[in-house]
């Protein structure tokens, strides 16, 4: 029996070293790490974005505030009065960009926290309400434009765009609608090389994968995962993190490798910390962190 036992162990070891993906599959969380609360008392947290220092900026949209999380200092208020900022992202100049649906705009905050409009009014009509964005390696901006009725809008506000679409604003300021066949687009993220884009159709419970062309156009629409994710992020292994009831992690092949439970339903995720090895989770009234073995990417 001992000989059979040792023989089995040897065979298993050979298989693991021969096929390292078996050994590493789903092994993305740091040893003994658990989801920890980083702050609470918010109304609805969203839009985490990491700056060059590893600090995370996140929104509390119903309270119209942006807060900063620092792994050493904790949470502090960045700004109150944000035009209802939602999804956010830092560009190469470390300017904070935001989808702001008080006036249905794409905006950025300068070093004095002054607000500047980047884009509004597609084809002369107000957008539905920009929700999430991603900036590619050329400086072009992809953003989703679903429709969620907001109580801060005027009573006569209506949805006048005929499509709940996804747009691409190129570095020259030219805009095009690159997706027009979704029920309700929401989360969006791309790969660092600028070749692949993932977009969530939250109302259809699907994630779609696209090839990005040189002009920013999208081709090769491919089904990726059966979830209607709110926010999304990606790590240095190419794994995609989705938020739909819990955090679902899929490898680049579209294989589910991890499920991460959180005390509250997550709305968005982002990697932060000096080494980008802390998964930062916005979840309703609170924000949470989880130490990881993998790292986030810009």
Describe the structure.
The protein has two helices and 24 strands. With 298 residues, it is mainly beta. The strands form six sheets. Strands 1-24-23-22 form a four-stranded antiparallel beta sheet, with no helix packed on it. The chain has a four-stranded antiparallel beta sheet with strand order 2-3-4-5, with no helix packed on it. The longest helix is centred in the first third of the chain and has 17 residues, at 2-18. It is globular and about 55 Å long. The model is unreliable at 4-24 (pLDDT under 50).
Low-confidence stretches: 4-24
Q: Largest sheet, order of strands side by side? A: 1-24-23-22
**Estimated share of beta-strand residues:** 35-45%
Largest sheet data = 4 strands, antiparallel
Mean pLDDT: 93
Helix proportion of residues, in percent? Answer: under 10%
Number of strands: 24
Count helical runs. 2
Distance from N terminus to C terminus (CA atoms, Å) equals: 53 Å
What is the topology?
Elements: H1 2-18, H2 20-24, E1 36-40, E2 45-50, E3 56-60, E4 65-70, E5 74-80, E6 85-90, E7 96-100, E8 105-109, E9 115-120, E10 133-135, E11 141-144, E12 166-169, E13 175-179, E14 185-190, E15 196-201, E16 206-212, E17 218-225, E18 232-234, E19 240-244, E20 246-250, E21 256-260, E22 268-272, E23 278-283, E24 286-291
């Amino acid at each position: 029996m001992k000989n059979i036992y040792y023989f089995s162990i040897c065979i298993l070891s050979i298989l693991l070293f021969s096929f390292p993906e078996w050994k590493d599959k789903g092994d993305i969380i740091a040893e003994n790490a658990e989801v920890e609360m980083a702050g609470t008392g918010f109304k609805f947290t969203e839009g985490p974005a990491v700056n060059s220092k590893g600090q995370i900026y996140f929104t509390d949209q119903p309270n119209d505030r942006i807060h900063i999380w620092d792994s050493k200092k904790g949470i502090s208020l960045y700004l109150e009065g944000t035009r209802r900022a939602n999804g956010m992202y830092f560009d190469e100049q470390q300017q904070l960009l935001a989808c702001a649906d008080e006036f249905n705009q794409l905006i950025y905050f300068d070093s004095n926290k002054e607000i500047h409009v980047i884009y509004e009014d597609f084809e002369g009509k107000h957008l539905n309400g920009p929700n999430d964005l991603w900036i590619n390696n050329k400086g072009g901006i992809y953003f989703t434009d679903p429709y969620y009725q907001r109580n801060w809008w005027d009573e006569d506000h209506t949805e006048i765009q005929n499509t709940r679409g996804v747009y691409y604003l190129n570095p020259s300021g030219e805009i095009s609608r690159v997706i027009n066949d979704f029920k309700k687009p929401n989360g969006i993220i791309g790969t660092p090389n600028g070749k692949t884009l993932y977009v969530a159709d939250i109302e259809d419970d699907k994630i779609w994968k696209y090839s990005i062309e040189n002009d920013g156009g999208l081709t090769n629409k491919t089904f990726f995962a059966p979830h209607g994710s709110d926010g999304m992020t990606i790590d240095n292994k190419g794994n995609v993190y989705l938020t739909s009831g819990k955090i679902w992690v899929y490898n680049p092949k579209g294989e589910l490798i991890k499920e991460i439970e959180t005390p509250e339903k997550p709305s968005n995720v982002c990697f932060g910390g000096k080494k980008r090895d802390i998964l930062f989770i916005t979840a309703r009234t609170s924000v949470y962190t989880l130490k990881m073995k993998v790292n986030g990417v810009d």
